[in-house]
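User: Structure tokens for this complex, please. No commentary.
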Amino acid sequence: MSAAAEPVADVTVDARGRMCPAPVIELARAARRLGTGVVAVLADDPAAATDIPAWCSMRGARLICVADAPGARRYLVAVG
Amino acid sequence: MSATATDGAVPGWVDRGSAAWRYLDAASGLPLQPTARTALVEALRTGWPDPTRRYPLARQSRRMLDSARHSLASALGVAPEGLILLGGFDEAVATALIGFPGRLLVSAVEDIAVLRTADLLQRQGRIVQIIDVDRGGRIDLAAAAAAAEAGPCVVVVQDVNIEIGTRQPIAALREAVGARTPLVVDVRATLGREPMAVHWDAAIAVPQLWGGPPGCSVLALRDPDRFRPERPPTDGQRDIEPASPSIPLAATAALALETFPVDHTERLRPLTRMLRDTVAARIPDSAVIGSADSAWITMFTFLYVAADELIDELARRGWSCASGASCTSDTRRPHHVLTAVGASTHGSLRVSLPPWCDRGLVSAFVDDLDDVVAGLRRDAGVTDL
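Assistant:
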């Protein structure tokens, strides 16, 4: 299953330039609007690297992968 | 409200209804105990002469120093010769880390003073290795063992973490790193309170944590001969200690430890349990960080709440507590303890109950906390998330 291609995000949240807890709040808002699917979060707040996985485990979501993006990191999260 | 047995734990320590009554940051230090206040003034009056002098006036301070040293050494379980009286916590940390040679193995959840000292020593050429912890905050014993296999080193760890209350398996750590590896244990969260680790070569304690005076710390050594501090030699007798420890502070620290409530843990553990249970039952999207072994320290996290706003709102209602390890606006960096255990780095709140705490205080706090968290979430528009 790990060899599968990276899923395409249904929605992308741009939280660049925003500090904790904003990236997690934006992720939660997007997850709520989407219901079930994949949310991509762009964040440059270093705290997001801990906060997003922590949110996933508190909310039963799954962090699919983290990748470098221009000036930020891109977190891909399966929700719902 | 009538006085109860609980505020008589140490009569007159803090007045019920005063601002200090709602102080829930006991892990940052306590006010001086009332008997210690009196003793400090007396010690300043009589304990001023240089204890190394031969004239009769010096006898009083000599006796005072010897007695404080005996009392503190006995509480820590070392010989008086192994007791070093120092300034603040940072000085004790630096003295301990410099005094044991070899690579420095530091757990990822140590105090920032330990990490900063390790960082400085690393820049001076010392090898430093951070040992990871699990999600409960417990040190990776296999990693510590592997690091110790690689050559002479010294390990630095808290027996109970003062931010998240996790108890480290110190006896198992001793097994893992071997008897020859010096173990420096920060016992601030346990001495006088909870069962303290015993398998150490050096222990660091801070009197202000038990209602002793601020500005002093204690470094206890099992075997002073193994210890090699870098400091100018003194008169020859006790080269491991600075030449002039503060006798009044030492005497007061020793007295305060003797008069610290012996039933502290038995009284506070049920209150801490009540705090955790009522927060979990009433406040949605909250969690306890770490493995919560401590009888008096709890680190909470509240989703979508900014820690400094939480602290400020609680302060407006008269509560003094710390964001503990949270990333706050003044640092803007996720705190190493929260990162190390993979916890949410925003909205963290450390509640460390003071010895005068009672059920009424806990329930009044949870009422306000519930209200404050709900209000902040409403303001941020995150109530339905």
